[in-house]
Amino acid sequence: MIRKLTVDTYSESTDQLGSLLADAVAGGASLGFRDPFGPEQAAGWWRSRQPAVADGSLTVWAAHAPAGVVGTVTLAAEPKPNGRHRGEVVKLIVHSAARGRGLGRELLETAERAAAERGISLLLLDTATGSPAERLYETAGWTRYGIVPDYAANPAGVLEDCTFFYKRLPQTA
Length: 173
Hints:
Blueprint: E1 2-4, H1 7-26, H2 39-48, H3 50-55, E2 58-65, E3 68-77, E4 86-94, H4 103-117, E5 122-128, H5 132-139, E6 143-153, E7 159-168
Parallel strand pairs: 4-5
Antiparallel strand pairs: 1-2, 2-3, 3-4, 5-7, 6-7
């Protein structure tokens, strides 16, 4: 079950979100962090985002299973007045034990739907070139608009290319 986290439920979920993020980084996902990176550090990073959740500039959803949080996606609103029509999908993460069952696509669709309901007509995101996430975005109707070589280091410190995508959203009335 995917639920939008309120400020209170977000605060209660940071340890589980931290375990999820640490699992992804341990699996080699290029999410902005380098090894060693454990659940405590990851939970601290999520806690540092709480003010943005409180002010509405970040909206976070979590997928729950009996074992706890198994997936998440975040929608970042553009704060500049000339960009309020766009947003960014960030930190789409599925636990290694829950992959291959469509949860990533379901999380992505949740963020897309919520963005359209907020009047956002353009979404952006980026991912490591050649990653499984790249295939997800391609098959979900996202448009690749460029690849930047050596954009970011993966958890092991190796520079990797990054692919950038956008998607135009239908507007709800």
